[in-house]
Amino acid sequence: MNLIEEFNDYRAMMNEKIMAADNKVLKRIFNLDTNAFAEGALDVKTKEMLGLACSMVLRCDDCVKYHLGKCKEVGLNKTEIFEVFSIATLIGGSIVIPHLRRASEYWEELENQ
């Protein structure tokens, strides 16, 4: 199984288990997340770039992978992705570099799909 399938399969399996718990607060948080990234005053592409940059600065590898996948879905290219990477690394500082490495690897996998 490749890096992308492993991430997506695990995420889907755990989200199913979490939703099966039928916790109203968690369901509302998940719904809020979905709605926040929907088309609005900002287009989805911009929102995904923001999500990616914030995730890198916060050093959440799962979030970075998720937003990289969404960025690929909405048509970002490698040049655009690396501009987002550069802003996130500038704002987050050198501590973001290990996450930048993993993000670069994951983006390469997405491009090769």
Automatic annotation (TrEMBL):
Alphabetized UniProt keyword annotations: Oxidoreductase, Peroxidase
SUPFAM superfamilies to which the protein is assigned, alphabetical: AhpD-like
Residues of the Carboxymuconolactone decarboxylase-like domain: 25-103
Keyword Ribonucleoprotein attributed: no
Example GO molecular function: peroxiredoxin activity
InterPro entries reported for this sequence: AhpD-like, CMD-like
Domain of life, source organism: Bacteria
Official protein name in the record: Alkylhydroperoxidase AhpD family core domain-containing protein
